């Protein structure tokens, strides 16, 4: 006789658990949304869409498609490169300036002395070697000057042409100096000419005050053989040896090398200080 298996009664706690679990899965009927809710949802969707477009516009200026690696190697941020800040022109007062405003404000200005820096002139009798003659009228008398150009002057002018604003600043008389300048500047490299009447006379010495020229003091260099002439702005000066008749003179070729380096400086006074430092080191060797 086979006995029937007795069905065990379900524990009370299990019944409660079953009821509780099943009751959580019951679906309650949805109520239709009210018109005000529909308007609110529509407004939110429009706002989110507008924000999404703004974010995409911002990202499109910073990220590129190539920034995303499609082979699963991750995201690579685009590096933003900033161009160096351009040279800023330092405001300079042009009131009563010796020179008109520059055509190219960001070019450095070279102030060149004339006699014993670029040329050597002598009166009669004529020297053995000279390049040309000028005959200015000084105090009602015609004077004859025999002029010798410093070696390398043509190559020097060729190098500085277009790279710098070139100004002759001489303590010589205008009637004489303008004739000499016309002879040596066949290429039209020189932009302006300043003569003795632009100098400041102190104790019988003619001083060339660069602060009166209307140029940025950090973007100018004066080249002269006479230290008295640039005594007010020594940090802007390169002194050259006095030229008389040395046919083997190399001062202008040295200046070309200096100016090649100076082109890379925002403040040309730093290049001048470096030049003087190197010259001092050579003298001490």
UniProtKB/TrEMBL annotation:
<dbReference type="GO" id="GO:0004721">
    <property type="term" value="F:phosphoprotein phosphatase activity"/>
</dbReference>
<feature type="domain" description="FCP1 homology">
    <location>
        <begin position="103"/>
        <end position="262"/>
    </location>
</feature>
<dbReference type="InterPro" id="IPR011948">
    <property type="entry name" value="Dullard_phosphatase"/>
</dbReference>
<dbReference type="Pfam" id="PF03031">
    <property type="entry name" value="NIF"/>
</dbReference>
<protein>
    <recommendedName>
        <fullName>FCP1 homology domain-containing protein</fullName>
    </recommendedName>
</protein>
<dbReference type="InterPro" id="IPR050365">
    <property type="entry name" value="TIM50"/>
</dbReference>
<dbReference type="InterPro" id="IPR036412">
    <property type="entry name" value="HAD-like_sf"/>
</dbReference>
<dbReference type="InterPro" id="IPR023214">
    <property type="entry name" value="HAD_sf"/>
</dbReference>
<dbReference type="InterPro" id="IPR004274">
    <property type="entry name" value="FCP1_dom"/>
</dbReference>
């Amino acid at each position: 006789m086979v006995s029937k298996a007795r069905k065990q009664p379900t524990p009370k706690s299990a019944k409660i658990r079953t009821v509780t679990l099943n009751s959580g899965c019951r679906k309650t009927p949805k109520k239709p949304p009210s018109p005000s809710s529909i308007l609110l949802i529509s407004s939110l969707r429009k706002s989110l869409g507008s924000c999404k477009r703004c974010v995409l516009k911002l990202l499109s200026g910073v990220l590129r498609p190539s920034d995303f690696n499609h082979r699963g190697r991750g995201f690579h941020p685009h590096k933003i490169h900033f161009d160096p800040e351009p040279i800023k022109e330092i405001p300079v007062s042009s009131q009563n300036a010796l020179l008109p405003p520059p055509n190219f404000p960001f070019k450095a200005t070279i102030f060149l002395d004339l006699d014993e820096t670029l040329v050597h002139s002598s009166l009669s009798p004529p020297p053995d070697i000279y390049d040309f003659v000028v005959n200015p009228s000084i105090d009602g008398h015609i004077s004859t000057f025999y002029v010798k150009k410093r070696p390398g002057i043509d190559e020097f002018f060729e190098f500085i042409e277009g790279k710098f604003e070139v100004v002759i600043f001489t303590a010589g008389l205008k009637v004489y100096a303008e004739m000499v300048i016309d002879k040596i500047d066949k290429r039209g490299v020189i932009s302006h000419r300043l003569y003795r009447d632009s100098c400041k006379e102190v104790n019988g010495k003619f001083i060339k005050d660069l602060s009166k020229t209307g140029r940025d003091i950090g973007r100018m260099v004066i080249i002269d053989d006479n230290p008295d002439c640039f005594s007010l702005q020594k940090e802007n000066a390169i002194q050259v040896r006095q030229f008389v008749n040395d046919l083997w003179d190399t001062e202008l070729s040295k200046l070309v090398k200096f100016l090649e380096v100076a082109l890379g400086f925002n403040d040309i006074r730093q290049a001048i200080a470096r030049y003087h430092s190197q010259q001092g080191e050579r003298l001490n060797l």
